[in-house]
Structure of dTDP-4-dehydrorhamnose reductase:
Amino acid sequence: MKILLTGSNGQLGHDFKKLFDRKNIEYIATDSKELDITNDEKLKIFFQENGEVTHVINCAAYNDVDKAENNEKVWLLNAKAPKKLAEISKEIGAIFVTYSTDFVFDGNKSSPYLEEEETNGLSEYGKSKAKGEKEVFKIYDKSFVIRTSWVFGIANNNFNKQVINWSKSRNELNIVDDQVSAPTYSVDLAKFSWKLIQTEKFGLYHITNDGITSKYDQAKYVLKKIGWNGTLVRAKTADFNLPAKRPAYSKLDSSKVEKLLDEKIPSWQSGIDRFLEEMKENGEL
């Protein structure tokens, strides 16, 4: 077994590396500096030079939702690159894995989204991800596309870290209460993804931490845990005049993967608790 891991310096890539190190699984970790997955020629050379790759796990993505509204790179990274990686994986007979997002949905529901429901992204980010999903499945049947939501981990910036940083210099925070989904700890995402990948039951899956919350209640939970004494104020998404539209409700239903693995994914609160412990161990809290 030999795994190519793209986007390895991001939150999910970081936790895959830790998982593979623990399990003594051979992998090649690349980020954009080592491998530009939007460059077909560089991809071709890379695979020629790196021999028998059995799995391609693509954690690279363009995730800046607001900047994506005016940057064609979002389509290169989120749609073109997964398509090309799927093509190469098919040529070499490797299992292909890539990630998508709750933002492929418009958020007009009030119950969790199932894998087979129609996508209707509101932003360039959401639309590019939906396009990437479709392209992959058109090309290669030995593929996993894993949708997730509101990812947080130790290796990069995320909403939890932002809230903690804001709390250091402010006595009042305004956080939106009209965006609802499930925060997902990248440690759990890597763990459950790897269990899923090993089943070789290819297809589209949702993996998020269990439960549902708003950004406001997520921030409230984090701030209580760190003992912040300021005032948290409810705000609305419209108050912030952001370039990209967000789905109001984007909770994903993870029951398909839980049934397959016969295992429940931990709650988002448990994820945050362990994340804060990890931050303490790293001296970041």
Q: What stands out?
A: The longest strand covers residues 95-101. The two ends are 37 Å apart (CA to CA).
